[in-house]
Amino acid sequence: SKETQKDKEKVQDNNEIKDFARKLRHYGLWLLGTEQDGDDIWKSIRQFGYTELTAIETDAGLTKRGKRKQWRQIFKYKVFPGCFVSKPGRRWAESLFWEDKLKTFFKMLLPGTWANGKQFFKTRNEIYAKIKQKYTVFKTLFEWEGKMYWLYFTNMQKLSYDTTAYSKPYDNKFDDAGNRKKYI
């Protein structure tokens, strides 16, 4: 009788999912899923249609604000005296003799690129990486139902949703080694 109860629950769950999928389709709503394997998506949802997007072009670039900020920071390191931008404590530690310390002192009065070129290029690459991470915008042109659309997104955006609701049934599909169990 336990099997019959489980079968009844499965039929009831399946009917609820069918009704849910019909409402999605009827009202023009979207259900986005990230599962790659069709076996893990209920047939009741799969059979009510799908959407096909054709990605045509993707561009990446810095925002205007990011370009300005990057230019200002690099300009500062190029123009400001080396004592402000090239870690003077480290430069003094590198100098062993008083002649070297004297040369380093006067060199630190020059712009950052001349005071310590190696440090300037390291700092410049760090600035590039930080600005790129924070201010890069991706633009994707895609076609959907015969119309063209642009989608804009950044590295900082993320999609969050609760994935713990069905974690136990999903985990049961895998063995202890992490391989998918064979269905019989």
Structural features, described:
There is one protein chain. A 3-stranded antiparallel beta sheet has the order 1-2-3. The protein is elongated, with a radius of gyration of 30 Å. The chain has 184 residues and is an alpha+beta fold. Strand 2 and strand 3 form a beta hairpin. The chain starts with a helix and ends in a 13-residue tail after the last helix. The longest helix has 25 residues. Helix 3 packs antiparallel against helix 8.
Notable features of this structure?
184 residues, alpha+beta, three-stranded antiparallel beta sheet, 14% strand, elongated
Level of helix content? 40-55%
Uncertain segments:
159-163
Strand order of the largest sheet: 1-2-3
Radius of gyration: 30 Å
How many strand units?
3
- SSE string: HHEHHHHHHEEH
Our measurement of the CA-to-CA distance between the termini, rounded to an integer number of angstroms, reads 22 Å
Provide mean pLDDT, rounded.
75
Gross morphology: elongated
